[in-house]
Amino acid sequence: MVDLDALTAAGIKNAHERRALLEYLDGLGFTLEEMVAAEKHGRLFALSGDGALKSGKAVHSLRTAAQAISRPLEDVQHAWAALGLTVADVDQIALSEADVEGLRTWSDLSGFVGEVTALGVLRVLGASMARFAEAVSSAIRGGVPAIQLNYTEDELATAKAYAGVTGFIP
Question: Which helix (H) or strand (E) holds 98?
Fold first, then answer.
């Protein structure tokens, strides 16, 4: 059972009226902090899907990722940007263990093929994944209108639909 008063105090608007959604998200294991962060971005209804789309829990910053793979921070910043990804601050916790492993693979590859070629591979990978994700997203939006809040006008229904299609979105 979620503490609706605590959620309200933390910044969730109309928590009592949104009880079903909040209980659903709580049942999926989302924390108060995660719900509040999603609410701040106007995406509480999408938390169920957004959480599944991440490469894992964010535990690293670009700085700690650079330290973990023994590379200069500047190199890691360039690699992350080559993928088409951004982080507001090099100390912002935004990368998962899987992200760091991906950076480690890039680092190892650059030792074999050179920095320029390895960064080129990252650019192609980032652009390809972005195009693929957009194609899948467009197909799902057209085929499953219930993932759109303006269609259902029901946060819980949208949250469940969104969670249901996340396996198809890279």
Answer: helix 97-113
Residue 167 identity (one-letter amino acid) = G
The DSSP output letter for 15 is: T
Tens-place pLDDT, residues 18-70: 999 999 999 988 888 889 988 998 889 888 887 666 677 889 999 999 999 99
pTM for this predicted structure: 0.71
Rounded distance between C-alpha atoms, residue 133 and residue 170, angstroms: 6
In angstroms, the first-to-last Cα distance of the chain is 32
Question: 155-165 vs 19-27: helix axis angle to the nearest 10?
Answer: 30
Do 109 and 115 contact (CB within 8 A), yes or no? Answer: no
Q: Which residues of 47-71 are buried (b: 16+ CB within 10 A; e: fewer)?
A: bbbbbeeeeeeeebbbebbbebbeb
